[in-house]
Amino acid sequence: MSEYVKSLMAEVKAKHPSQPEFHQAVEEVADSLSLVLEKHPEYRTSKILERIIEPERVIIFRVPWVDDQGEVNVNIGYRIEMNSAIGPYKGGLRFHPSVNLGILKFLAFEQVFKNSLTTLPMGGGKGGSDFDPKGKSDLKIMRFCQAFMSELFRHIGPNTDIPAGDIGVGGREIGYLFGQYKKLKNEFVGVLTGKGLNWGGSLIRPEATGYGAVYFAAEMLGTRNETMEGKICLVSGSGNVAQYTTEKILQLGGKVLTLSDSNGYIYDEEGINEEKLKFVMELKNVRRGRIKEYTEKYKNAVYTQLDLNTDHNPIWDHKADCAFPSATQNEINAKDAQNLINNSVYVVSEGANMPTTIDGIKIFLDNNILYGPGKAANAGGVAVSGLEMSQNSMRYSWTREEVDEKLRIIMKDIHKTCVDTAERFGTPGNYVNGANIGGFLKIADSMMDQGVV
Ligand code: NDP
Fold first, then answer.
1. pLDDT (0 to 100) of residue 2
2. Residue 354 CA, closest ligand 1 atom number
3. Is 391 in the pocket of ligand 1 (CB under 6 A)?
């Protein structure tokens, strides 16, 4: 770590204590950027990185709501408007009990670089609440979403800030949020993405993050003249990203052995085929059940309960070629990374945001595997959100094939940016440097053009 990064990190930690995930995200990026800052002292003089680290605006608000038993509940709502140098703030909303300011700041920070990489004109933001949607009735979810939007609506807009989904926020929640925004503002505009197809949504948006992560893996494999055909894959999570990652792996001829949720994971040696994936989609999206139920239906599969006392995550300790972490942050630590290498995994494409710890990343880089960091590999979701915004502006809808093809080309371009940038800065094959520097340059130059604001 350079002296500059050391002193920057000391300052970030002193200014923002108790935000370990935010420190982690900044450190990973700052480490890569020391290569650029040496060559471009003007960025340092203008304090570009120091300015990117501070959100342009943080909104924190009370979300009081009454549940269907008449009980009053209070949650915390957040929106981090991180950077608008290249476009309006754009990034998802997360509803999960673990949500706090530090987690949303890490996500918003990552989002700034990711959105820049897509080549679309989108700034970075993120938001959410410590509300836990798990096990709640549709009525409770609707009441909470309406209460959340009753404050958020005054801060967002189609040219200001356009939220989307993330953990705990899928099509159902986006629908309730959109309905309340429309009622309060009396206007039908593209203020959210991930909308339903009947009311301004884009085809392929639900699939985009997962499909994109697999397209990115395929591009990485292409550098070694290989394809996804016949590849054995480990996938974590069983939500939106994990489901469509699995679907695309199957379409490209790969085999998926695992899926998980926050209680445990299933291992199916025979592979999760289309029919089994359909069962998982119904289980998770309609019945909202637990992944354990998979083994009640498919008896040969094995379920392992999550054990918080172990120092590793056993889902990453199986023989395979590729891993697609698609659940949450820090789900792969150094021991997990080593287990993956020992099990001959040589492709890691991150569907989740920051699923690998800094020590874990180091192990991947030291072993020269094809490691696609989240801000590049999972950018397909926000890219298709950008395409949804374009379609809303044009009041026109592209076909499924058109959107899928645009997504594939965007993922190919992001991959090329990573490869070319890593090479230009003397670290060929290092997708971490490629993504961080590639995303940074466009934002830094735009901030330089726009003066100190
Ligand atoms: P979903 O809510 O649809 O699914 C999340 C999945 O991860 C669920 O299976 C959930 O299990 C599991 N999970 C959540 N938190 C934890 C935890 N603390 N420990 C273990 N498992 C956990 O979310 P998405 O699929 O949308 O998001 C997954 C990841 O992908 C996140 O990191 C998100 O930021 C990232 N991402 C999502 C994008 C999108 O378009 N949706 C875009 C880019 C990145 P359970 O049901 O038990 O909670």
1. 85
2. 32
3. no
Distance 246 CA to ligand 1 centre (A): 14
Average pLDDT over residues 240-256: 98
Ligand 1 binding pocket includes 330 (Cβ within 6 Å): no
171 CA from centroid of ligand 1 (Å): 14
Residue 46 belongs to a domain: no
Q: Are residues 60 and 104 both part of a single domain?
A: yes
Tell me: do 175 and 246 sit in the same domain.
no
Regarding whether 225 and 372 lie in a shared domain, the answer is yes
What domain range is 146 assigned to? 55-188
Residue 145 covered by a domain: yes
Summarised one tens digit per residue, pLDDT across range 7-29 is: 999 999 999 999 999 999 999 99
Average pLDDT along the chain: 97
Query: What's the CATH code of the domain at 238?
Result: 3.40.50.720
Which of ligand 1's atoms lies nearest the C-alpha of 242?
Answer: 25
pLDDT tens for 406-443 read 999 999 999 999 999 999 999 999 999 999 999 999 99
Q: Does 108 share its domain with 226?
A: no
Confidence check: pLDDT of 68 > 90 = no
171 shares a domain with 228: no
Q: What is the 3-state secondary structure (H, E, C) of the chain?
A: CCHHHHHHHHHHHHHCCCCHHHHHHHHHHHHHHHHHHHHCHHHHHCCHHHHHHCCCEEEEEEEEEECCCCCEEEEEEEEEEEECCCCCEEEEEEECCCCCHHHHHHHHHHHHHHHHHCCCCCCEEEEEECCCCCCCCHHHHHHHHHHHHHHHCCCCECCCEEEECECCECHHHHHHHHHHHHHHHCCCCCCCCCCCHHHCCCCCHHHHHHHHHHHHHHHHHHCCCCCCCCCEEEECCCCHHHHHHHHHHHHCCCEEEEEEECCEEEECCCCCCHHHHHHHHHHHHCCCCCCCHHHHHCCCCEEEECCCCCCCCHHHCCCCCEEECCCCCCCECHHHHHHHHHCCCCEEECCCCCCECHHHHHHHHHCCCEEECHHHHCCHHHHHHHHHHHHHHHCCCCCHHHHHHHHHHHHHHHHHHHHHHHHHCCCCCCHHHHHHHHHHHHHHHHHHHHCCC
Distance 344 CA to ligand 1 centre (A): 26
Q: 160 and 231 share a domain?
A: no
- The answer to the question of residue 444 being in a domain is no
Domain contains 413: no
Supply the CATH number for residue 184's domain.
Answer: 3.40.50.10860
Per-residue model confidence as pLDDT tens digits over 383-410:
999 999 999 999 999 999 999 999 999 9
> Same structural domain for residues 372 and 272?
yes
Number of domains the chain contains: 2
